[in-house]
TrEMBL record:
Residue ranges of the TM segments: 12-33, 53-73, 85-104, 158-176, 203-223, 229-253, 359-382
InterPro entries from the UniProt entry: Na-dicarboxylate_symporter, Na-dicarboxylate_symporter_CS, Na:dicarbo_symporter_sf
Organism ancestry: Bacteria, Bacillati, Bacillota, Bacilli, Lactobacillales
Gene Ontology cellular component terms for the protein in this record: plasma membrane
GO terms for biological process, alphabetical: dicarboxylic acid transport
Main location per the UniProt record: membrane
Keywords: Cell membrane, Membrane, Symport, Transmembrane, Transmembrane helix, Transport
Protein known as: Glutamate aspartate cation symporter
Pfam families assigned to the protein according to its UniProt record, in alphabetical order: SDF
Organism annotation: Dellaglioa algida DSM 15638
Membrane topology term: Multi-pass membrane protein
Cellular localisation: Cell membrane
GO MF, any single term: symporter activity
Annotated Gene3D superfamilies: Sodium:dicarboxylate symporter
Amino acid sequence: MVKLKYYKAYRVSLGWQILIGLILGVIIGALGYQNKLIINSLQPLGTIFINMIKMIVLPIVVSCLVVGIANMGDIHKLGRIGGKTLIYFEIMTTIAIALGLIVGNLTKPGQFIDITALSKVDISQYVTTEKSTSTGLSTILMNVVPTNIFKSLVEGDMLPIIFFSVLFGLGTATLGEKGKPIIDFFTAVSEVMFKVTNWVMKLAPIGVFALIGVTIAQLGVAALKPLGFFILVTYLTMIFFVIVVMGLVAKLFKIDLIVLLKVIKDEMVLAFSTASSEAALPKIMEKMENFGVKKGIVSFVIPTGYTFNLDGSAIYQSIAALFLAQAYHIHLSIGQQITLLVVLMITSKGMAGVPGASFVVLLATIATIGVPASGLAFIAGVDRIIDMGRTTVNVVGNSLAAVIIAQSENEFDRDKNKRYLKELNIK
Protein backbone atom coordinates (compact mmCIF):
# COMPACT_ATOMS: atom_id res chain seq x y z
CA MET A 1 0.00 0.00 0.00
CA VAL A 2 2.84 2.37 0.87
CA LYS A 3 4.58 1.60 -2.42
CA LEU A 4 1.35 2.24 -4.36
CA LYS A 5 0.87 5.64 -2.67
CA TYR A 6 4.50 6.48 -3.39
CA TYR A 7 4.01 5.55 -7.07
CA LYS A 8 0.86 7.66 -7.41
CA ALA A 9 2.50 10.64 -5.73
CA TYR A 10 5.45 10.64 -8.12
CA ARG A 11 3.80 9.39 -11.30
CA VAL A 12 4.52 11.74 -14.22
CA SER A 13 1.33 13.10 -15.83
CA LEU A 14 0.69 12.63 -19.55
CA GLY A 15 1.22 16.33 -20.21
CA TRP A 16 4.70 16.20 -18.68
CA GLN A 17 5.46 12.97 -20.54
CA ILE A 18 4.56 14.66 -23.85
CA LEU A 19 6.65 17.72 -22.95
CA ILE A 20 9.63 15.50 -22.09
CA GLY A 21 9.16 13.68 -25.40
CA LEU A 22 9.12 17.05 -27.18
CA ILE A 23 12.37 18.21 -25.54
CA LEU A 24 14.14 14.90 -26.18
CA GLY A 25 12.95 14.98 -29.80
CA VAL A 26 14.42 18.45 -30.29
CA ILE A 27 17.75 17.32 -28.78
CA ILE A 28 17.97 14.12 -30.84
CA GLY A 29 16.90 15.96 -33.99
CA ALA A 30 19.50 18.69 -33.49
CA LEU A 31 22.26 16.15 -32.82
CA GLY A 32 21.18 14.01 -35.78
CA TYR A 33 20.83 16.80 -38.35
CA GLN A 34 20.58 15.27 -41.85
CA ASN A 35 21.35 11.84 -40.37
CA LYS A 36 19.34 9.43 -42.52
CA LEU A 37 19.54 6.64 -39.95
CA ILE A 38 17.87 8.78 -37.27
CA ILE A 39 15.31 10.21 -39.71
CA ASN A 40 14.39 6.77 -41.09
CA SER A 41 14.19 5.31 -37.57
CA LEU A 42 11.91 8.02 -36.16
CA GLN A 43 9.68 8.58 -39.20
CA PRO A 44 7.68 5.31 -38.86
CA LEU A 45 6.97 5.94 -35.15
CA GLY A 46 5.54 9.38 -35.85
CA THR A 47 3.53 8.16 -38.84
CA ILE A 48 2.05 5.24 -36.88
CA PHE A 49 0.95 7.56 -34.07
CA ILE A 50 -0.75 10.03 -36.44
CA ASN A 51 -2.43 7.12 -38.26
CA MET A 52 -3.77 5.79 -34.95
CA ILE A 53 -5.22 9.22 -34.17
CA LYS A 54 -6.88 9.40 -37.60
CA MET A 55 -8.23 5.89 -37.01
CA ILE A 56 -10.27 6.96 -33.97
CA VAL A 57 -11.33 10.49 -34.96
CA LEU A 58 -14.13 9.72 -37.43
CA PRO A 59 -15.89 7.04 -35.34
CA ILE A 60 -15.92 9.49 -32.42
CA VAL A 61 -17.21 12.40 -34.50
CA VAL A 62 -19.97 10.34 -36.16
CA SER A 63 -21.14 8.56 -33.00
CA CYS A 64 -21.11 11.71 -30.84
CA LEU A 65 -22.88 13.78 -33.49
CA VAL A 66 -25.62 11.20 -34.04
CA VAL A 67 -26.26 10.80 -30.29
CA GLY A 68 -26.00 14.53 -29.56
CA ILE A 69 -28.33 15.60 -32.39
CA ALA A 70 -30.79 12.76 -31.71
CA ASN A 71 -31.02 13.73 -28.04
CA MET A 72 -31.42 17.38 -29.01
CA GLY A 73 -34.31 16.33 -31.23
CA ASP A 74 -35.44 19.82 -32.25
CA ILE A 75 -34.57 20.92 -35.78
CA HIS A 76 -35.34 24.57 -34.92
CA LYS A 77 -32.96 24.43 -31.96
CA LEU A 78 -30.29 22.83 -34.14
CA GLY A 79 -30.76 25.56 -36.75
CA ARG A 80 -30.40 28.25 -34.09
CA ILE A 81 -27.25 26.64 -32.68
CA GLY A 82 -25.82 26.18 -36.18
CA GLY A 83 -26.49 29.82 -37.05
CA LYS A 84 -24.89 31.10 -33.85
CA THR A 85 -21.90 28.83 -34.32
CA LEU A 86 -21.17 29.90 -37.91
CA ILE A 87 -21.63 33.61 -37.12
CA TYR A 88 -19.27 33.32 -34.14
CA PHE A 89 -16.70 31.43 -36.24
CA GLU A 90 -16.83 34.04 -39.01
CA ILE A 91 -16.42 36.95 -36.58
CA MET A 92 -13.42 35.36 -34.83
CA THR A 93 -11.77 34.37 -38.12
CA THR A 94 -12.19 37.89 -39.51
CA ILE A 95 -10.67 39.39 -36.36
CA ALA A 96 -7.75 36.95 -36.63
CA ILE A 97 -7.08 37.85 -40.27
CA ALA A 98 -7.38 41.58 -39.56
CA LEU A 99 -5.01 41.28 -36.60
CA GLY A 100 -2.47 39.48 -38.77
CA LEU A 101 -2.66 42.21 -41.42
CA ILE A 102 -2.28 44.98 -38.82
CA VAL A 103 0.75 43.30 -37.24
CA GLY A 104 2.27 42.59 -40.65
CA ASN A 105 1.95 46.26 -41.62
CA LEU A 106 3.41 47.48 -38.33
CA THR A 107 6.37 45.08 -38.05
CA LYS A 108 7.11 44.60 -41.78
CA PRO A 109 8.88 41.22 -41.30
CA GLY A 110 9.55 40.83 -45.04
CA GLN A 111 11.53 44.01 -45.59
CA PHE A 112 14.74 42.44 -44.24
CA ILE A 113 14.68 39.52 -46.70
CA ASP A 114 16.17 39.27 -50.19
CA ILE A 115 13.90 36.78 -51.89
CA THR A 116 14.48 37.57 -55.57
CA ALA A 117 16.94 34.68 -55.92
CA LEU A 118 14.05 32.28 -55.48
CA SER A 119 12.10 33.44 -58.52
CA LYS A 120 12.90 30.25 -60.45
CA VAL A 121 12.58 27.76 -57.60
CA ASP A 122 10.24 24.82 -58.19
CA ILE A 123 7.93 24.44 -55.18
CA SER A 124 6.16 21.31 -56.39
CA GLN A 125 8.14 19.25 -53.87
CA TYR A 126 6.40 21.12 -51.08
CA VAL A 127 2.83 20.75 -52.28
CA THR A 128 2.54 17.40 -54.05
CA THR A 129 1.82 15.55 -50.85
CA GLU A 130 -0.63 18.10 -49.56
CA LYS A 131 -4.33 18.30 -50.28
CA SER A 132 -6.13 21.59 -50.61
CA THR A 133 -9.62 21.06 -49.30
CA SER A 134 -10.87 24.50 -50.21
CA THR A 135 -10.84 26.39 -53.52
CA GLY A 136 -13.71 28.76 -52.81
CA LEU A 137 -17.06 29.17 -51.10
CA SER A 138 -19.03 27.64 -53.97
CA THR A 139 -16.85 24.53 -53.96
CA ILE A 140 -17.29 24.14 -50.20
CA LEU A 141 -21.08 24.44 -50.49
CA MET A 142 -21.21 21.88 -53.29
CA ASN A 143 -19.05 19.45 -51.34
CA VAL A 144 -21.16 19.67 -48.17
CA VAL A 145 -23.66 17.11 -49.48
CA PRO A 146 -21.99 13.72 -49.97
CA THR A 147 -22.85 11.59 -52.99
CA ASN A 148 -21.45 8.59 -51.12
CA ILE A 149 -21.05 8.82 -47.34
CA PHE A 150 -18.73 5.83 -47.25
CA LYS A 151 -16.44 7.52 -49.78
CA SER A 152 -16.42 10.63 -47.57
CA LEU A 153 -15.56 8.49 -44.53
CA VAL A 154 -12.71 6.82 -46.40
CA GLU A 155 -11.32 10.17 -47.56
CA GLY A 156 -11.91 11.86 -44.20
CA ASP A 157 -13.93 14.77 -45.63
CA MET A 158 -15.29 16.32 -42.45
CA LEU A 159 -18.01 18.59 -43.87
CA PRO A 160 -19.99 15.86 -45.70
CA ILE A 161 -19.59 13.57 -42.67
CA ILE A 162 -20.98 16.26 -40.34
CA PHE A 163 -23.86 16.95 -42.75
CA PHE A 164 -24.84 13.28 -42.99
CA SER A 165 -24.46 12.66 -39.24
CA VAL A 166 -26.68 15.65 -38.40
CA LEU A 167 -29.40 14.41 -40.77
CA PHE A 168 -29.07 10.87 -39.47
CA GLY A 169 -29.35 12.11 -35.89
CA LEU A 170 -32.44 14.17 -36.70
CA GLY A 171 -34.00 11.22 -38.51
CA THR A 172 -33.32 9.00 -35.51
CA ALA A 173 -34.95 11.54 -33.18
CA THR A 174 -38.19 11.43 -35.19
CA LEU A 175 -38.52 7.66 -34.63
CA GLY A 176 -39.17 8.03 -30.91
CA GLU A 177 -38.89 4.68 -29.10
CA LYS A 178 -37.96 2.89 -32.35
CA GLY A 179 -34.85 5.04 -32.56
CA LYS A 180 -33.67 4.19 -29.04
CA PRO A 181 -31.65 1.08 -30.13
CA ILE A 182 -29.80 3.26 -32.66
CA ILE A 183 -29.00 5.88 -30.00
CA ASP A 184 -27.89 3.14 -27.59
CA PHE A 185 -25.66 1.64 -30.28
CA PHE A 186 -23.92 4.91 -31.13
CA THR A 187 -23.63 5.78 -27.43
CA ALA A 188 -21.80 2.48 -26.89
CA VAL A 189 -19.60 3.18 -29.93
CA SER A 190 -18.59 6.59 -28.58
CA GLU A 191 -17.80 5.16 -25.13
CA VAL A 192 -15.69 2.39 -26.66
CA MET A 193 -13.81 4.86 -28.87
CA PHE A 194 -13.04 7.12 -25.91
CA LYS A 195 -11.58 4.08 -24.15
CA VAL A 196 -9.45 3.40 -27.23
CA THR A 197 -8.45 7.07 -27.24
CA ASN A 198 -7.10 6.76 -23.71
CA TRP A 199 -4.98 3.80 -24.81
CA VAL A 200 -3.66 5.63 -27.88
CA MET A 201 -2.81 8.70 -25.78
CA LYS A 202 -0.42 6.61 -23.73
CA LEU A 203 1.72 6.42 -26.87
CA ALA A 204 1.60 10.21 -27.39
CA PRO A 205 5.04 10.92 -25.80
CA ILE A 206 6.67 8.44 -28.21
CA GLY A 207 4.77 9.85 -31.19
CA VAL A 208 5.66 13.43 -30.25
CA PHE A 209 9.32 12.49 -29.72
CA ALA A 210 9.47 10.94 -33.19
CA LEU A 211 7.57 13.69 -35.02
CA ILE A 212 9.53 16.62 -33.62
CA GLY A 213 12.79 14.68 -33.88
CA VAL A 214 12.27 14.10 -37.61
CA THR A 215 11.29 17.73 -38.17
CA ILE A 216 14.41 19.15 -36.48
CA ALA A 217 16.68 16.50 -38.04
CA GLN A 218 15.45 17.44 -41.51
CA LEU A 219 15.44 21.22 -41.06
CA GLY A 220 18.25 21.80 -38.62
CA VAL A 221 18.22 24.61 -36.07
CA ALA A 222 20.22 26.82 -38.45
CA ALA A 223 17.29 26.88 -40.91
CA LEU A 224 15.32 28.99 -38.43
CA LYS A 225 17.80 31.88 -38.31
CA PRO A 226 17.02 33.69 -41.60
CA LEU A 227 13.31 33.65 -40.81
CA GLY A 228 13.63 34.15 -37.07
CA PHE A 229 11.88 37.54 -37.05
CA PHE A 230 8.99 36.24 -39.16
CA ILE A 231 8.53 33.25 -36.81
CA LEU A 232 8.77 35.49 -33.73
CA VAL A 233 6.19 37.98 -35.06
CA THR A 234 3.78 35.18 -35.97
CA TYR A 235 4.05 33.48 -32.58
CA LEU A 236 3.72 36.74 -30.62
CA THR A 237 0.62 37.63 -32.65
CA MET A 238 -0.95 34.24 -31.95
CA ILE A 239 -0.18 34.57 -28.23
CA PHE A 240 -1.72 38.07 -28.24
CA PHE A 241 -4.83 36.71 -29.96
CA VAL A 242 -5.29 33.97 -27.36
CA ILE A 243 -4.61 36.09 -24.29
CA VAL A 244 -6.20 39.39 -25.32
CA VAL A 245 -8.81 38.71 -28.01
CA MET A 246 -10.02 35.33 -26.75
CA GLY A 247 -9.62 36.59 -23.19
CA LEU A 248 -11.97 39.52 -23.83
CA VAL A 249 -14.49 37.31 -25.62
CA ALA A 250 -14.37 34.80 -22.77
CA LYS A 251 -14.85 37.57 -20.21
CA LEU A 252 -17.85 38.85 -22.19
CA PHE A 253 -19.49 35.44 -21.70
CA LYS A 254 -18.30 35.18 -18.07
CA ILE A 255 -15.80 32.39 -18.82
CA ASP A 256 -12.43 32.11 -17.09
CA LEU A 257 -10.05 31.54 -20.00
CA ILE A 258 -7.14 30.67 -17.69
CA VAL A 259 -9.17 27.85 -16.13
CA LEU A 260 -10.09 26.56 -19.61
CA LEU A 261 -6.42 26.61 -20.67
CA LYS A 262 -5.48 24.64 -17.55
CA VAL A 263 -8.12 22.02 -18.41
CA ILE A 264 -6.88 21.53 -21.98
CA LYS A 265 -3.16 22.06 -21.37
CA ASP A 266 -2.25 18.46 -22.24
CA GLU A 267 -4.14 18.69 -25.54
CA MET A 268 -2.43 22.01 -26.29
CA VAL A 269 0.98 20.40 -25.85
CA LEU A 270 -0.13 17.45 -28.00
CA ALA A 271 -1.45 19.72 -30.76
CA PHE A 272 1.74 21.80 -30.64
CA SER A 273 4.00 18.77 -30.82
CA THR A 274 2.17 16.95 -33.62
CA ALA A 275 1.00 20.04 -35.57
CA SER A 276 -2.27 18.16 -36.07
CA SER A 277 -5.62 19.31 -34.71
CA GLU A 278 -6.93 15.78 -35.15
CA ALA A 279 -4.50 14.53 -32.53
CA ALA A 280 -6.28 16.57 -29.86
CA LEU A 281 -9.87 16.29 -31.13
CA PRO A 282 -11.00 13.12 -29.27
CA LYS A 283 -9.78 14.27 -25.86
CA ILE A 284 -11.00 17.84 -26.40
CA MET A 285 -14.52 16.55 -27.08
CA GLU A 286 -14.38 14.36 -23.99
CA LYS A 287 -13.02 17.14 -21.78
CA MET A 288 -15.48 19.79 -22.97
CA GLU A 289 -18.37 17.46 -22.13
CA ASN A 290 -16.88 16.83 -18.68
CA PHE A 291 -16.30 20.59 -18.39
CA GLY A 292 -20.06 21.10 -18.46
CA VAL A 293 -20.92 21.59 -22.15
CA LYS A 294 -23.89 19.45 -23.22
CA LYS A 295 -23.05 16.57 -25.57
CA GLY A 296 -25.13 17.96 -28.45
CA ILE A 297 -23.22 21.26 -28.42
CA VAL A 298 -19.81 19.58 -28.15
CA SER A 299 -20.61 17.11 -30.92
CA PHE A 300 -21.66 19.84 -33.34
CA VAL A 301 -19.44 22.84 -32.52
CA ILE A 302 -15.99 21.24 -32.22
CA PRO A 303 -15.98 19.11 -35.42
CA THR A 304 -17.51 22.03 -37.34
CA GLY A 305 -14.83 24.31 -35.90
CA TYR A 306 -12.14 22.14 -37.45
CA THR A 307 -13.40 23.39 -40.80
CA PHE A 308 -14.69 26.90 -40.09
CA ASN A 309 -12.82 28.17 -37.01
CA LEU A 310 -9.08 28.06 -37.62
CA ASP A 311 -7.92 31.29 -36.00
CA GLY A 312 -4.26 30.33 -35.78
CA SER A 313 -4.16 29.43 -39.46
CA ALA A 314 -5.91 32.71 -40.37
CA ILE A 315 -3.31 34.74 -38.46
CA TYR A 316 -0.44 32.88 -40.12
CA GLN A 317 -1.86 33.24 -43.64
CA SER A 318 -2.39 37.00 -43.35
CA ILE A 319 1.08 37.65 -41.90
CA ALA A 320 2.73 35.26 -44.38
CA ALA A 321 0.98 36.89 -47.36
CA LEU A 322 2.20 40.35 -46.29
CA PHE A 323 5.66 38.94 -45.49
CA LEU A 324 6.02 37.60 -49.04
CA ALA A 325 4.63 40.79 -50.60
CA GLN A 326 7.13 42.87 -48.61
CA ALA A 327 9.97 40.52 -49.51
CA TYR A 328 9.17 40.99 -53.21
CA HIS A 329 8.77 44.76 -52.67
CA ILE A 330 5.13 44.60 -53.72
CA HIS A 331 3.19 47.49 -52.19
CA LEU A 332 -0.36 46.60 -51.22
CA SER A 333 -2.90 49.40 -51.01
CA ILE A 334 -5.66 49.44 -48.38
CA GLY A 335 -8.10 48.22 -51.04
CA GLN A 336 -5.82 45.31 -51.98
CA GLN A 337 -5.44 44.34 -48.34
CA ILE A 338 -9.21 44.40 -47.84
CA THR A 339 -9.47 42.14 -50.90
CA LEU A 340 -6.85 39.89 -49.34
CA LEU A 341 -8.90 39.75 -46.12
CA VAL A 342 -12.02 38.72 -48.04
CA VAL A 343 -10.14 36.11 -50.06
CA LEU A 344 -8.61 34.64 -46.90
CA MET A 345 -12.04 34.53 -45.24
CA ILE A 346 -13.18 32.28 -48.08
CA THR A 347 -10.09 30.19 -48.80
CA SER A 348 -9.43 29.48 -45.11
CA LYS A 349 -12.68 27.52 -44.88
CA GLY A 350 -12.52 23.78 -45.33
CA MET A 351 -8.88 23.25 -44.33
CA ALA A 352 -8.25 19.73 -43.09
CA GLY A 353 -6.92 19.20 -39.56
CA VAL A 354 -3.66 17.80 -40.87
CA PRO A 355 -0.13 19.21 -41.03
CA GLY A 356 0.50 21.47 -44.04
CA ALA A 357 -3.05 22.21 -45.21
CA SER A 358 -2.69 25.90 -44.33
CA PHE A 359 0.38 26.11 -46.57
CA VAL A 360 -1.64 25.00 -49.60
CA VAL A 361 -4.39 27.53 -48.86
CA LEU A 362 -1.71 30.24 -48.72
CA LEU A 363 -0.50 29.06 -52.14
CA ALA A 364 -4.01 29.61 -53.53
CA THR A 365 -4.27 33.05 -51.89
CA ILE A 366 -1.03 34.89 -52.72
CA ALA A 367 -1.77 34.82 -56.45
CA THR A 368 -4.48 37.44 -55.84
CA ILE A 369 -1.87 39.98 -54.68
CA GLY A 370 0.68 39.28 -57.39
CA VAL A 371 3.19 37.32 -55.29
CA PRO A 372 5.00 34.61 -57.32
CA ALA A 373 4.21 31.08 -56.13
CA SER A 374 7.93 30.33 -55.98
CA GLY A 375 8.20 32.65 -52.97
CA LEU A 376 6.55 30.00 -50.84
CA ALA A 377 9.72 27.94 -51.14
CA PHE A 378 11.37 30.43 -48.80
CA ILE A 379 8.95 29.78 -45.93
CA ALA A 380 8.21 26.13 -46.75
CA GLY A 381 11.14 24.97 -44.66
CA VAL A 382 9.79 26.54 -41.47
CA ASP A 383 6.11 25.96 -42.19
CA ARG A 384 6.07 22.97 -39.87
CA ILE A 385 7.51 25.05 -37.00
CA ILE A 386 4.79 27.68 -37.38
CA ASP A 387 2.16 24.99 -37.98
CA MET A 388 2.74 23.80 -34.42
CA GLY A 389 1.75 27.18 -33.00
CA ARG A 390 -1.24 27.82 -35.25
CA THR A 391 -2.62 24.34 -34.58
CA THR A 392 -2.51 25.02 -30.84
CA VAL A 393 -4.44 28.29 -31.32
CA ASN A 394 -7.02 26.42 -33.42
CA VAL A 395 -7.56 23.90 -30.61
CA VAL A 396 -7.97 26.63 -27.98
CA GLY A 397 -10.36 28.55 -30.23
CA ASN A 398 -12.64 25.56 -30.81
CA SER A 399 -12.69 24.66 -27.11
CA LEU A 400 -13.68 28.21 -26.19
CA ALA A 401 -16.32 28.24 -28.94
CA ALA A 402 -18.02 25.15 -27.51
CA VAL A 403 -18.30 26.77 -24.06
CA ILE A 404 -19.54 30.08 -25.49
CA ILE A 405 -22.26 28.48 -27.64
CA ALA A 406 -23.31 26.35 -24.65
CA GLN A 407 -23.53 29.47 -22.47
CA SER A 408 -25.64 31.28 -25.06
CA GLU A 409 -28.06 28.34 -25.21
CA ASN A 410 -28.18 27.77 -21.44
CA GLU A 411 -26.71 24.32 -22.14
CA PHE A 412 -23.79 24.69 -19.75
CA ASP A 413 -23.95 22.54 -16.60
CA ARG A 414 -22.26 24.60 -13.88
CA ASP A 415 -22.59 21.89 -11.23
CA LYS A 416 -20.85 19.39 -13.49
CA ASN A 417 -18.23 22.04 -14.25
CA LYS A 418 -17.50 22.58 -10.54
CA ARG A 419 -17.24 18.83 -9.90
CA TYR A 420 -14.86 18.36 -12.83
CA LEU A 421 -12.61 21.26 -11.80
CA LYS A 422 -12.54 19.92 -8.26
CA GLU A 423 -11.60 16.50 -9.59
CA LEU A 424 -8.73 18.07 -11.59
CA ASN A 425 -7.82 20.27 -8.58
CA ILE A 426 -8.14 23.42 -10.69
CA LYS A 427 -9.24 26.67 -9.04
